[in-house]
Amino acid sequence: MYHLLVNSPFGTEAATLLPRVETMIPVLYFGLFAMSFDFISGYTGYLSFGHAAFYGTGAYFVILTANDKIPLLPPGTPFMVSLVVAGLVAVALALAIGAVSFRLTGVYFAMITLGFAQVLYVFVRGWDYVGSNPRDGIFLNGANGLNIGVPGVDALNLSIGALTGDEVSLGFVHLGQTEVSYYMIGLVVLVCYFAMQRIIHSPFGKVMVAIRENEERAIAVGYDTFRYKLGAFAISAFFAAVAGGLLAGYERTVSPDESFNFLVAGDALLASIIGGFGTLAGPLYGQLFNETFREFLSKAGEGGGLLPYLRTHLGSGVMGTTIYNGLTVQGAIETFLNGHASLYVGALFVLFVLFVPNGLLGTLRDRLGGPVSKEIPARLRRFR
To answer: On the CB side of 288, how many CA atoms lie within 13 Å of its CA?
Structure first.
């Protein structure tokens, strides 16, 4: 669809507005991390500001396994196996952190999880075992990509990676390395989403919502809320680690700043608020909105985006027109748009908090009167 639209008569406008496949891949794996954050924060009401600890654990575990630095796991361990084991390691870490953190509530819980994450962040930055320069991160040794599929069945595996992924030809359709990575990572994200969705709609998930709405009443009914919160925390950590593993598998490198840093959890919070807290799929759409907007205001001189579009279509005459006190159109663009995507994303975040508190998906759900997946098919059936 993207290539059809870009090659249509409105191709320039489509390339300006639509996110590229290269943008969609980070949206997918970070969207999974944001969904795992929403799983615990949106459905139990406990904000986990240290959730990046599990994201970084998954990323580092995958690369360390491939680099033969994890005992009992040889470097040839299938990527899918290392993803699952990374998730289990994150579960153990979450149980240890949660056993202490869930003794507290509210902002105290958020702060103590943040403290644990920062301890891990500082530790990894100075841990020489992971690499020769741990402060700058570690790289995946070897040229081969990491495979997503059924472990041990070569015909059902495809490699991912920006430069090391597989290419596939299906009839007249050719999928390059980026497209194959997009679909394979998307497949993992989809499976994880359905797994979390199933848990939320189970009796366990109902108790999670009860804790969010009124924990005292849930305790009075007879639920051991501590165990339920700890279980939800462990489940969210598992999927956060899978997301981190996908980051490492695709990028083939990871650093403490892009994995263990508390600002990573802040980005997940941003995506959750924009997409809708307590909607699970909302954070994915929030991350898509965030990255699309950033790409739209990108200062890149090539490809899509507002700046290249204006430079190409306004012409030198318009660009040189004086607006006020010697400030030209080109000067205004460079001053107010070039490199200021984060500024406008921050302003949008404030507007969402003030005027769209339920986020994109939450507001749509409120307008429809129920879950989108149920209400839209029901309304379509009425028009038949």
So the answer is: 19
